[in-house]
Amino acid sequence: MTSGGTTDAAAKSSASELVEDGRAKVNLTLRVVGRRVDGYHDLESVVAFADCADRLSFVPGAELQLATTGPLAEACGEVADNLVLKAARLLGERVPGLKTGAFTLHKVLPVAAGIGGGSADAAAALRLLARANGLAADDARLIEVARLTGADVPVCLASRACVMTGVGEKLLPLKLPKLACVLVNPRVAVATKDVFRALGLRNGELLVGVTDVIQAIVWPEDGAQSSDWIEAFASETNDLEEPAIRIQPVIGEVLSALEEAGKARLVRMSGSGATCLAIFDDAAAADAAAGKIQLAYPQWWVHAGTLS
Fold this sequence. Notes:
By secondary structure, this protein is of the alpha+beta class. The chain has helices spanning about 5-15, 85-95, 115-135, 140-150, 155-160, 190-200, 210-215, 225-235, 240-245, 250-260, 285-295, and strands at about 20-25, 30-35, 40-60, 65-70, 100-105, 160-165, 170-175, 180-185, 265-270, 275-280, 300-305. It folds into 2 domains: about 15-175, Ribosomal Protein S5, domain 2 (2-Layer Sandwich); about 180-305, 2-Layer Sandwich (Alpha-Beta Plaits), CATH 3.30.70.
């Protein structure tokens, strides 16, 4: 084949390829209201999204496929169990003649890490399939499949800051300013189900009092300064932090490292762990803290960036 033919083939492949990012989900607050009689937990959480992400590409074709690449590809486990394929199959059951094809997942986010990596990948797959099939972003079938795929997939579908309540299906958008942050994961997987089990709520049991449930949290108004938001986040907590530390004590070490790095305005675990976050006044402070932690703990996954 001539060089011109190779270029033409590459251009054709590139033209047919669609790409979406699966941004890391970060829980700035996480209150467990209680456990429902069906066993699911009701939550209230402020969720933001980081500027680090897996990348999912899609080329339409006759067969549904998934390949994984990237530094953390091996951590994805069996491809057949991946949420990308689960989401695609569920959508195919609801959309007659759905065009599928080959997905390639470039994996850079740690797995079972409390930042919704797998959920973000599944949400990216749904956005890609929507684009390839001319489905609207608010198509009811997309929303339904997101809920069926996993509790964090609906919030990752939009990948916008919001208050997430219920079991993750109720979303209230927030206009959150950009926040300088550092994310740290000790490369230890933590299963969400194990953390909720360690929380120890019985079916039908409330974790907070009735007064707390009735009194809704009032977040800063649109246009509020970053300091107002950080103060509001600091008044809340992550109810899963304590049980997660009992399961993996290294989470406590990560929190201490973020505190000791200096100048953090807020330090907290995200989701069910083990990823922890710190918010800073500016990018320079975040970069300096990340550098100290990476130097002291070279085996940890560290990212300095922004939340929004």
